[in-house]
Amino acid sequence: MLTVTLPDEDIEQRLADLRDRVDLVHWDLSAPLPAEVAERVTAVEVPHYFSRPGAFDILTTLPHLRYVWLPSAGFEHAVGHLPPGVTLCNGRGVQSAGTAELTLALTLAAQRGIADAVRAMVRGEWHNPFGPALADRHVVLVGYGSVARAIADRLEPFEVTITPVAHHARVQDGVQVHSLEDLPDLLPSADVVILAVPLNAGTDHLFDAQLLARMKDGALLVNVARGRVVDTDALLAELRTRRLRAALDVTDPEPLPSDHPLWHAPGVLITAHQGGNTDATYPRIARLVRRQIEHLLAGEEPENIVARG
Question: How many Cα atoms occupy the beta-carbon half-sphere of 235 within 13 Å?
């Protein structure tokens, strides 16, 4: 019988009907499994936000492990840390809607000055400023995977012009996607720049001082990708001069220390990496795990393969 470990009771309950065909084992990877259980594990669903240093070392205790399934679209934290012969699958699509919702919320809140309105409300002040809209703006969307496409779908009704950018130029579903090499020419006309690109060698500190300098005065940078896609010191320098604004769900470092100057920089709105923190996430994780199990039972490869050991 196929043995799969699941990290929490919510997913276990949603998959309980599979128990007559699959041995579902509760395991959050915090301590080794009993040897007789570890011996038969084929696939592991990793807990949400499982990325501490050395976290994946415990998988070496599973001699017949073949698959590791992540709940996140991002997978850079797992690549290179899995035992030999293990196939890694990400959670592409699971958190796309939640992250897209938060992206729109951050963008609208920054454009319409909602943070200032909340502070004025606490003081009991009538705050009625004139500020930028989202309508009729040029949005450069950096990344065009499942999260970025979900963002684009939600941006469309706001009457914006969207220019998608990805690692490689292409026409996808009738949409012209530019390459990262085009960014220096695209940024000067962008009112809003949204980062939803995977973190890898090509995007680590992609938005450095030079690229940030290409953005137009008053532009908004929204980062829902990974904190390291942006050079924090370079962004701070732009924020302090009030030339750029930022709305960030991810930061570098992360978690952001309480005394970090980014918290108090002018023109910044920060949420604590909560794009996928919604009640829609775990049901979607469970549905993906169900599909992965059905693939294995049918002798098929699972979905969303991103690396092979």
Answer: 28
